[in-house]
C-alpha cells in the first residue's frame, strides 16, 4: 500500500507477493483489515475519504464506501457483521454494515486526530495521535470512555490485539509500545442499606495504567449500571431503590480498554418505608344558601316600543318603531299574525301586509276589512338583572281589545 494506490497480497508461508490489487491513482491506502471468515478485506483510502472492498477469492475491488475525512485505522467485530473506520481529520468513527457496505452510524470521539483502531469483544478502540489519549465505545451501551495512555505514550498510531481481545499493544511514534489489559476486580468490604439507597465500600481495582470507574449490578450481572456522575473511588451510593427490600449487589471496574471481572455479590437491605401519617378527615364546609335573586321587570323604554292603541282598518300603521329598546337596553322583536273568519291564507294576505324596515321597524298595511283580527307579540330576552319582556295585543276592526 502507498502512493501508487495498490495493495499487495503476500503468501505468509513464503513471504512472497502473490497479487497486486490496484485501487486507483492518488488513493494513498493506509490500513487493511480482513474479515473474520477471510472472504473479503476493507482498505482505507486517506486521499479519497473512502474504504475499498476487495474480494479475496478474485483479488479484485468490488466496491467503495464513502466515510469520514482522512480514514486510517480499520477493524471488524468478531462475527464480521460490522466494520469500523477511524477518520483522523474529522475525529469520528464510521460504523459499516458489511452486508450492505453502508455506513449505519457515525460516532463522534472526544478528540480529533484519531488514527489507530481495533475492535475487542466489548469495545471499539481508537487513539488520538496528538493528545496520546485512548478512546473507546462500549459496543452494548454506546457509552464512550476516555483515558490517558500513561507514561511513554506519544503519537499512538496503531493498535493490535489477539482474537480474544484479552490484551492489546499500542505502537507509539517514539517506538514505545503500550500494553493494555483489563482491570482487576474490586473487593467489596461492606454494603449498608439506607433510605431507598445502598452504600457500597470497596478496595479499588488496578486499572493497569488506565483511568478506572465503577459499575454495579442488581441482577447477578445480567445488566450493569454506570452512576452519573462516574464513581472513581470508594464508596459508591446506589439511589432510587425500593424501601424494605434486600438486594444482591455486584461491582466491576471499567476502563477504556475493557470491563473487569465482577466481584462477589453482597447483600444489603434498604430501610423500611415509614408508617404513613394518617390523613385527617376534613370538616365539611357548609354550602351557603344562595340569596334569592329578584329580577326587575323589563318593559318598553319609550313609545317606540309600545304597541299602538289602534290599527287602521285601511292604511299603514306603525306597530314597533325604529331602534325600539326595553329599559334593559334590549332590542324589541315583533311578530304579527292576522286572520279572517272563514278565510283562506291567500285571502288573509290580500287584506293585510306586514312591512319590516331597518333597525327593527315593523308596520302593518290593511285593506279595509273591519272583521280582520290582528295579533301583535313583542318580546326581548332576559338579562342577569331583568326578567324576559313579552306582550300580546289583539286588534279586531282596528280596535285593541
Plain-language structure description:
This protein has 401 residues and is mainly β. It is 2% helix and 45% strand. The protein contains 1 helix and 30 strands. The protein has one helix at residues 345-351, and strands at 6-11, 16-22, 29-34, 40-45, 50-55, 60-66, 71-76, 82-87, 92-97, 102-108, 114-119, 123-128, 133-138, 144-148, 156-160, 167-172, 177-181, 187-193, 198-203, 213-217, 236-238, 246-254, 266-269, 314-320, 333-339, 352-356, 362-367, 373-380, 389-396, 399-400. Strands 3-4-5-6 form a 4-stranded antiparallel beta sheet, with no helix packed on it. Strands 7-8-9-10 form a 4-stranded antiparallel beta sheet, with no helix packed on it. A hairpin with a 5-residue loop joins strand 7 (71-76) and strand 8 (82-87). The radius of gyration is 47 Å and the shape is elongated.
Q: Quick gist of this model?
A:
The protein has one helix spanning 345-351; strands at 6-11, 16-22, 29-34, 40-45, 50-55, 60-66, 71-76, 82-87, 92-97, 102-108, 114-119, 123-128, 133-138, 144-148, 156-160, 167-172, 177-181, 187-193, 198-203, 213-217, 236-238, 246-254, 266-269, 314-320, 333-339, 352-356, 362-367, 373-380, 389-396, 399-400.
Q: Into which percentage range does the β-strand content fall?
A: 35-45%
Strand order of the largest sheet: 3-4-5-6
Shape: elongated
Poorly predicted sequence stretches spanning 5 or more consecutive residues: none
Radius of gyration: 47 Å
- The oligomeric state is single chain
Largest sheet data? 4 strands, antiparallel
Cα-to-Cα separation, first versus last residue = 120 Å
Going by helix content, strand content and strand pairing, the class is: mainly beta
The total of beta strands comes to: 30
Give average pLDDT, whole number.
Answer: 90
User: Number of helix segments?
Assistant: 1
**Residues in helix, %:** under 10%
Amino acid at each position: 500500500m502507498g502512493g501508487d494506490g495498490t495493495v499487495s497480497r503476500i503468501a505468509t508461508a513464503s513471504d512472497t507477493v502473490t497479487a497486486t490489487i490496484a485501487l486507483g491513482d492518488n488513493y494513498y491506502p493506509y490500513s487493511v483489515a480482513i474479515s473474520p471468515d477471510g472472504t473479503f478485506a476493507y482498505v482505507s483510502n486517506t486521499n479519497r475519504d473512502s474504504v475499498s472492498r476487495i474480494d479475496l477469492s478474485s483479488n479484485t475491488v468490488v466496491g467503495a464506501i464513502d466515510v469520514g475525512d482522512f480514514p486510517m485505522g480499520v477493524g471488524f467485530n468478531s462475527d464480521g457483521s460490522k466494520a469500523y473506520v477511524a477518520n483522523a481529520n474529522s475525529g469520528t468513527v464510521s460504523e459499516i454494515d458489511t452486508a450492505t457496505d453502508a455506513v449505519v452510524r457515525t460516532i463522534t470521539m472526544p478528540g480529533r486526530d484519531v488514527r489507530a483502531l481495533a475492535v475487542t469483544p466489548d469495545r471499539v478502540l481508537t487513539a488520538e495521535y496528538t493528545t496520546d489519549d485512548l478512546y473507546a465505545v462500549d459496543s452494548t451501551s454506546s457509552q464512550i470512555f476516555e483515558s490517558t495512555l500513561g507514561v511513554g505514550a506519544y503519537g499512538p498510531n496503531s493498535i493490535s490485539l489477539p482474537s480474544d481481545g484479552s490484551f492489546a499493544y499500542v505502537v507509539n511514534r517514539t517506538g514505545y509500545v503500550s500494553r493494555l489489559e483489563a482491570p482487576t476486580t474490586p473487593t467489596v468490604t461492606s454494603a449498608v442499606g439506607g433510605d431507598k439507597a445502598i452504600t457500597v465500600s470497596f478496595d479499588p481495582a488496578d486499572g493497569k495504567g488506565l483511568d478506572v470507574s465503577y459499575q454495579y449490578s442488581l441482577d447477578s450481572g445480567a445488566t450493569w449500571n454506570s452512576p452519573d456522575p462516574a464513581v472513581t473511588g470508594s464508596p459508591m451510593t446506589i439511589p432510587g431503590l425500593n424501601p424494605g427490600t434486600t438486594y444482591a449487589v455486584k461491582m466491576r471496574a471499567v476502563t477504556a480498554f475493557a470491563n473487569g471481572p465482577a466481584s462477589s455479590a453482597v447483600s444489603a437491605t434498604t430501610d423500611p418505608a415509614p408508617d404513613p401519617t394518617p390523613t385527617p378527615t376534613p370538616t365539611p364546609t357548609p354550602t351557603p344558601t344562595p340569596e334569592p335573586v329578584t329580577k326587575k321587570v323589563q318593559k318598553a323604554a319609550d313609545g317606540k316600543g309600545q304597541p299602538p292603541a289602534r290599527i287602521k282598518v285601511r292604511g299603514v300603521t306603525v306597530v314597533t318603531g325604529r331602534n325600539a329598546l326595553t329599559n334593559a337596553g334590549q332590542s324589541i322583536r315583533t311578530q304579527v299574525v292576522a286572520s279572517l273568519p272563514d278565510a283562506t291564507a291567500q285571502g288573509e294576505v290580500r287584506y293585510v301586509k306586514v312591512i319590516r324596515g331597518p333597525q327593527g321597524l315593523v308596520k302593518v298595511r290593511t285593506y279595509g276589512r273591519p272583521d280582520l283580527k290582528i295579533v301583535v307579540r313583542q318580546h326581548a330576552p332576559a338579562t342577569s338583572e331583568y326578567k324576559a319582556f313579552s306582550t300580546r295585543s289583539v286588534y279586531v276592526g282596528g280596535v285593541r281589545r
